[in-house]
Specification:
- There is one protein chain.
- The protein is globular.
- The chain is of the alpha/beta class.
- The chain contains seven helices and seven strands.
- The protein has two domains: about 45 residues; about 220 residues, 3-Layer(aba) Sandwich (Rossmann fold), CATH 3.40.50.12140.
- The protein has a seven-stranded mixed sheet.
Length: about 260
Amino acid sequence: MSRTYAVGISVLLLIGALFLLPATAQRQYLGFQRLFNDLETDRRPPKDTEFVFARVQYNTVRQARGMRGFRGYEGWAHDYPDAEEHILQLADEATGINLNKDSYVIVRLDSDEIFQYPFLYFSEVGEMYLTPREIENFREYLNRGGFAMVDDFDFQEQLDWFASQMRQVFPDRSFVELKVEHPIFHTFYEITTLDVEPPMQEPGPPKFYGLQDEHGRLCMIINHNTDIGDFWEWIDQPIYPLAASKDGIQFGINYLMYSLTH
């Protein structure tokens, strides 16, 4: 490759990045606006849908200390609402589930509303600081057969912190590292390896943990050192490699299907 050609390619890539940056910033700003509007109006999902993706709003360390996130934007809301809309649209096209891209809702962990939904989505649980009411509610939800997906957190310290929060929910249960043979990785798509690429550089390879109930049922899938929801959010933009994005979609649809069938 000539030096002139290489420089030309570099310039084109730079120009593309400059166009992409305003687009990502605009999407994130619009996401903030939609989040605050949906919280203000108590947005509801469609009534004629078979499945609802319920994102959980939980108490955070900052709230416990009397602080707030950036402009009130806590980690539990990361990737909202594009992540929901994209994974739901793809699940609608790929499966026979009666849903659409609007089949999602924000639900407080201390609310009885969580019992209406078989699938809960948690983001950035390294910030979690459970209240007594949340502990009681979450324990009852999982004991009744609910399923939770935990995503978008990294470092061993955050995993240890989340484990300490969950010990308040179930003092006698621990996380178990899942192997690719587990049924959740074969519910709809055949996932053949857990050696997958995260969307961003992480302190370690992605790991997948589970929490089981007293009958051995997997009631929680924990994605550590990765952010599967980020793949969903940006699946319509050329930000991440196609193969890694495909993996993120397949993991997500498998999780949704597992929550409905187990």
